[in-house]
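User: Structure please.
Assistant: Input sequence and predicted structure:
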Amino acid sequence: MTTTAVITGASSGIGHAVARRLHADGMNVMLAARRADRIESLTDELGERAAFHVTDVTDRSAVEALVAATDEAFGQVDVLVNNAGVMPISPLAMRRVDDWNQMIDVNIRGVLHGIDAVLQQMIGRKEGHIINVSSVAGHKTSPGTSVYSATKYSVRAISEGLRQEMAPLGVRVSVVSPGAVQTELGDSITVGAIRDAIAANLDFEFLDPGDIADAVAWVVGQPPNVCVSEVLIRPTGQVI
């Protein structure tokens, strides 16, 4: 039976590249994101073994509907790539509470909604693989990244706790933590001066989303007795 992967945040960047790579590796892929036009276009391009479902990961019922649609289209969910994320960073003194809440809702609650939606069927089959995308910011906090880093540390903590819970049940849990990647994530920074300052200081060659997709494909491709707990991948020129 063909393996089926659900990828959130598939409308661009890492999610888009992961969907392409896993599909090229022979998997069924269900693309999930809020931007319908983008995931529909990629689905049409990929053709057979691809489908899409417009999904806001902050809405638990929407994520449950995503999994139901995947079950209907492909039979079951074998791999979940929890990739959707936002990064409207700023110093805490700026009091951008709405941005903090958005990061908490997407980066933490969205991951938990995905886990909850697939976990029972994976436990029932005693197999499955959940891959949560964290960040190098989940290993190191910098000025202005306090809340974003907190959400990415949380992803790692949730993942490790879940891995320990699922280890006796045959369900694998992995984390992929990218450094700087050439994606639209920086566009979610709402303070222009901060966005410009970051761009000016990152004077090295970024990773391509395909580099992260390769890492995800490697993690997924390990035999069932191998669980890669975490991959931390940086551009060669990135110091922190």
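The first strand starts at residue 4 and ends at 8.
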